[in-house]
Amino acid sequence: METMNSRFLSLVVMLSIFLPTVKFAAESSSEGVNPYKQRPHVIGVQASSVAGLGLDYKYAFGDLLHWRATGMAFPSKRYNSTTIFYNIGSEFQFNLFQAITGPNTFVRGYVGPAVSLWVNEYSWGEKTRNINAGGTLGFELVIASRFNIHGDLGLGYYQYGSASNYYTTVAGGIGIGILF
In the prediction, which pLDDT does 122 show? Predict the structure, then answer.
């Protein structure tokens, strides 16, 4: 019990030192600016088991909220059948912290809900739908005030096909983009 209390106390002390430092770095950096104030749009690619797969577009609504939409379509032909796979997804990102870490670099952490629909359509008329939803905890790094690298990890809730098969598991994704 004593080691549990000492670990908790050391965690509280570390957080009380770290969090004001991040806030101070975000407020006091005179070398750079938040790149989303100059370029609120991002276009890129993403692979996320919760928020979707394919091309993505993100918009920054000020300092606290970002929204991302993702989607793709992929037709394939095998032997005598044709399959079309497509998905669409969306994610809201609420900033936990953000910091200007240099003249051209910026980092932020976020949390938020995400949902996506994955569909396979077969030439013989069958269609499967998978709905993925969950919450994510993510990070984002902007390099050279223009290039975005992001990743997230969270809890995903999946419903496969028309049957009542529901699964909960660890989910995540990565992506890159260009601010404009």
Answer: 86
